[in-house]
Amino acid sequence: MDKAIVTDQLTRRFGDFIATDAITFSVDRGEIFGFLGANGAGKTTAMRMLCGLLKPSSGHAKVAGYDIATQTELVKKNIGYMSQKFSLYEDLTVKENIRFYGGIYGLSNQRIKEKTAQLLDKLQITKEANQLVSSLPLGWKQKLAFSIAILHDPSIVFLDEPTGGVDPVTRRQFWDLIYEAAHQNVTVFVTTHYMDEAEYCDRISMMVDGKIKALDTPRKLKEQFSAVSMNDVFLQLARQQTVSNQ
Amino acid sequence: MLQFLAFIKKEFYHIFRDRRTLLILFGMPVIQIILFGYAITNEIRNAEIAVLDQSNDYYSSRLVQKIGASGYFKITTALQSEKEITEAFRAGHIKVALVIPKNFGYNFYHNHKAPVQLITDASDPNSATTLLNYATAIVGNYQQEMSGQLKLPLTIDVHPRMQYNPALKGVFMFVPGVMTLILMLVSAMMTSITITREKETGTMEILLVSPLSPGMIIVGKVVPYIILSFINALVILSLGVFLFGMPVKGSLLLLLMECGLFVLTALSLGILISTITASQQAAMMISMVGLLMPTVLLSGFVFPLESMPLPLQMFANILPAKWFIIILKDVMLKGSGLLAVWKPTAVLLGMTVFFIALSVRNFKTRLS
Q1: Is B1's Cβ below 8 Å from some Cβ in A?
Q2: How far apart are CA B104 and CA B113, in angstroms?
Q3: Domains with residue ranges and CATH for chain A
Q4: How many A/B residue pairs have CB atoms within 8 Å?
Q5: pLDDT digits (tens, 9 = 90+) for A69-97
Q6: Would you say residue A185 has pLDDT above 70?
Q7: Tell me, what's the pLDDT at B239?
Q8: Which of A45, A195, A245, B50 could form a disulfide with A231 if both were Cys (CB 3.0 to 4.6 A apart)?
């Protein structure tokens, strides 16, 4: 089992509307996989299915080797998740947040203590451990949220637009954390709006109107569309779509 | 189990770090019960009364004395002429005027029949009626005393007895009412707010992605409120008993179990509200308008159900509060056992099951 995620004709309909239209792709273990698309292209629906939050209308998918429709519990145990909104409780301290998430993933007290010390040290926020999360700057919160999402050593972590509203420097630091996790063989599945971030991914899929229109490494995609940047690739795909719609 | 404990611990942090929540949880019950118990009451004491005694004999002054000594009235003005009655009412101090005509004692003694006139300020009809009742009762009582000495021929003697609340204390009505109101507010509103807050901040998604099952998340959110609501019920009960002399004639265990049941009903309503709303504001509005107002107005707590038009009486049947107030009054004042209150208990139980089933259905459609 080398693949972290495998999908086969994964489809989700809401009434007549097809949000995700028979997407088929796979993600390798330890890969950083960028999941791109305009708003409403079906990224979020696809991601929610992979996390076990939504049942697929048809098609199959396996995450960490478990079927998302029938083995939801096992899927949930083996993934981490960080959403665009904060996944942290603002009225809890840094330490309490760590304890809480460690607790609901069933980590032992001993293990939580070790992990907490490690994490605080890595993010260099040992001094702020007993401060309320609401008092931390946005960039810190996001780094903390990511570290907490991988606290229980999941094999895959899903990041839903994790860097929204952060300055480029902090975004770069955030990506250092992502690389570090990928080095430890954690698969990273990330959606983003920022095209410069797309360049950091190992491979990228571009979704338009519920379908995957392009999927390759950033370099090959740029060659394929003879574009200078990922932004160009994205614009060309979007234009094709408007033309075909007319 | 450890997962669950971690969850509950987190929930208590939320509650104890939010001043507004704490105030609603513990400040409000005490303030409300004291307000309702002392300030808002139907009983009137020391209402000012003016007396125009045109007879001024032994019998009339005995009657005036009796009214003055009743505790309900305070004789403040002795009027000299009928003209002064209107002036006295205009001045706004007196609520009632008693007019005793000339030859009152003579008529009473010789003809066995003597009129007196009671004039009340009916700009406030409720208190006017209440005062009139008090005064009539005192006059009737006086008549009996006097005629006892006189040996009247055959008369019908009515001995009214106010069962279960002989002193007609308003508190006996308010304590169950306030208890219902508070439990409804704390349980339904607070749970609907706390669950929608998780939705608003996006943490609900994280919880749903975690290995905790949706059912466990909801139970985890609700358990702290069950505990706190129950403590609240105990506080209100003891305030009622020790401060206002509210009796608990029935079994205390039954009373507490019924309180527990009502807390569950209210919580399940709160959960239901949270499944149909997305924001804390909306949850609060629905709880306030949809739950609190009907609870105050239509549960029989402030206004008697019997005097409402039939459609409203029927509507009151779907309010859990109505049934809980019936149970509270029966158990506390009448000393009823479970056999006597099984019907309202069954209604509450049925409602709870219904609300939970509906919430589960809503929750599932939202997920799939």
Answers
A1: no
A2: 9
A3: 3-245 (3.40.50.300)
A4: 77
A5: 899 889 999 999 998 776 789 899 999 99
A6: yes
A7: 86
A8: A195
